[in-house]
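Session log. Operator J.P. requested a structure for one protein chain; no other inputs attached. Running the standard single-chain path with token output.
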Amino acid sequence: MRGFARRTTVDAALAWVDGQCQRLPSEQVSVWQAAGRVLARDVVSGVSVPGFSRSMMDGFAVQAADTLGASAYSGLELQFIGQSLPGQPFDGTVGRGQAVRIMTGAPLPAGADAVVPAERAELRETRVAVLDAVSPGKNVGQAGEDVLPGATVLRAGRPLRPQDSGLLSSIGLPEMAVVRRPRVRIIITGNELLAAGTPPQGDRITDANGPMLKALVERDGGIARLRSLPLALEEDWREGVLNSAESHSALDYLVPDEPAAILAAMREDAEVVLVSGGSSVGQEDHAPLLLAQHGNLAIHGIAMRPSSPAGMGRLGGKIVFLLPGNPVSCLCAYDFFAARAIRLLGGRSAEWPYRCERLPLQRKLVSQVGRVDYARVRRVEGKAEPIAISGASILSSTTTADGFIVVPADSEGYAAGAEVNVWQY
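Structure written below.
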């Protein structure tokens, strides 16, 4: 209850996090499950895409030289000898003075080197009247124009987008190596708490940090676990498909403020443990003592506002983050430190997943030298209006905010009109 003897700087805490995080090993996933995952190895194509020259539109495959001089006033007639459809190519060769009807995506017949669009030609029984000249290669997609054999199509470390999945499929890759997602055990403590979704009652409040942290962990590529359920049962709980008895049990995810219960939860199988609540130096703040006694409490107390009671360390190979119970402090400490660790373990960029915009301040923002301040702001008529720099329990200050400003430790704040970086939620 005596407070913190000293507080670690934000920079030192970030350096500690970076020193603890080695990228996790890879695992194989199906191309159907690849989007959103981080590629573990470069992907090199073994094939051409497409593997054949094809028509880019409906029309007639011809030898371009046969169309010289063709116009709407002087159509040139060619012999009609067949058609080429997607999956049903023309089995023959286009010679001089001949044409083959062709559909978009169909293989270009041997001998042809261009396609006359359907609207620039007329089929007259066994003859095709060409009404426009085309040059060699016109309206033809060449073999390998998308991907060539031996090309590196995607580099390791890339978070895969939906279109990346399509490209990987196009080169015939059924599965690929991706970085394993870190498993994150979320421990919500506080005897005053009721489970998420439960109406507040009397002097008890409803947990806000559980749903928030779960969403943040999944945003950063981790697998969030709120309680010691079998993973399949927890997934069923998330999907809302449990029966009433199972659902009641699953909803009972809160960990009591008892050292034995908290330690047992901290020891569960995971790469990262987040303890929400009980992170300070009060009588009921058990987590720091447990981490110091059974593992390593590397940092406790950080020179920032909010989130100064945050801490971090290791327990049995796991990285443990002690997050304050006040929701804004919890969000801030998670975003600064725990999120960084989860992204690094999962092979992602350590940087914030927020877009940064330079805006002038609508009014001055005062800070204290020696600590980092996390100030929520609204965007009003092209300017950043500070909402609050205090009030660690006022979660609505983050929902009414458009983003936040970080005031560095060596600054007394910013004057009205100063250009600042606004990190947008």
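Operator note: The two ends are 35 Å apart (CA to CA).
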